Amino acid sequence: IQAGDCYGHGSRVVAHQNDGTTLYVKCVPMQWPLNNEPGECTFESWLSLEGPTVHVRSQLNNARSDHTQYAARGQELPAVYTNGNYYRLFTYAGAKPFTGDKLRQITKVWRSGAPDQVAGGPWDHWYATENWAALVRDDDFGVGIWSPGTYSFIGGFAGEPGKGGPKDAPTGYIAPLRSEVLDHNIQYAYEYELIVGTLTDIRAYVQSSRTNSRPNYTFRNDRQSWTLRNCTDAGWPIDSEWTVHLDEGQPLLVGPDAYWSAEKVPTIYLRAAFETQQDTARLAWEQLNGPGGDIRFSVEPDGQMHTYEISLAANASYQGTIKRLLIRPVDQGMKGATVRIESIGCERPE
Questions:
Q1: Cα–chain-centroid distance for residue 146?
Q2: pLDDT digits (tens, 9 = 90+) for 11-59
Q3: Of the candidates 228, 243, 293, 320, which lies 20 to 30 Å from 33 by C-alpha distance?
């Protein structure tokens, strides 16, 4: 944790700079639940003021002595906390993003008890289809967090709503979440914006700055937030392609949270090299409000890079809003089998 651990030990700052437009801090963060135990890593942040916003770029530089590749876990990117009078939490989690549709107020309050003793958990969870949420006062003024391309959010309020200052216990909380594999030596970077203003101001800023939500993932130097089940990859760094080992079990590649209309993405292009003993693979999808589906397609298991054009439009279950792609490269893993992927997306690779 950048701030320190739960025993009050702050992180050690090893470098800092202020050039008049950007604040830079590099620290050795602390393990939150442990007593004075620093992480085997450094954490860097660049904060730039731009009008009513703070643009933040952060990077984790891991140097973990344990080289095990662990399964992906949810990461707070970042965790935002507010004083007690900023207790009203709003977001958009509907099916008509960027149309001015009605906002949703998150009313979850964690008043007392250990987290595991709170019915349903201490925080609420939602799919933020406009990629933002905000904590505001009674007059609708406060701070918003916008994390482009991030849909899974958690948040709520702890303590007595509407009371307390910066040194008091009551606090509002928001965290955009992504599931990520954090290798022992990874350099993991992410960006977000903090927006100060009214709810109307915050939402208008996000709408004017929003990015394309159609699926396009190119594995030039990272995993693009894809994760693994029942398989491992070649680790960090990633250079031009994502190499996945399919040695056992039923390997599955899981795409990040997303949001697009099926009718606007009728075809997916996969640029990949299969070195397997199977001449088919499966592409699957999850719907935002539905069971999803899958399609089997032919592959060349020759270890050479090919572009696969996978038509989804004719599949009856490919409809509505899609929230994720998944790939099952083989039905059953086999020692020495691999797939190398350059890109997955709705645009044909050059």
A1: 12
A2: 999 999 999 999 999 999 999 999 999 999 999 999 999 999 999 999 9
A3: 228
Task: Name residues whose C-beta falls within 8 Å of residue 280's C-beta, 6 or more positions apart in sequence.
Answer: 296, 297, 298, 299
CB atoms within 10 A of CB 147: 23
**pLDDT of amino acid 211:** 80
If we measure between CA atoms, which residue out of 92, 75, 68, 66 comes closest to residue 144?
92
Which single residue is written with the structure tokens 């009008």? 51
Structure tokens at 250: 């039923």
The amino acid at 188 = Y
Q: What is the DSSP annotation of 112-167?
A: SS-GGGSTT-SSEEEE-TTSEEEEE-TTSEEEEEE-TT--EEEEEEESSTT---TT
Locate 21 and state its tokens. Answer: 């437009």
> Can you give the pTM of this predicted structure?
0.93
CATH-assigned architecture of domain 216-345: Sandwich (2.60)
Dihedral Cα 178, 179, 182, 188, nearest 10 deg: -20
Q: Look up residue 296 and give its two tokens.
A: 């089997």
- For the chain, give every domain's residue range: 70-209, 216-345
In sequence order, the 6+-apart residues with CB closer than 8 A to the CB of 67 are: 184
CA dist 274 and 301 (Å) reads 5
* DSSP 8-state code for residue 4: B
DSSP state for residue 199 in the 8-state scheme: H
- Whether the CB-CB separation of 90 and 104 falls below 8 Å is answered with yes
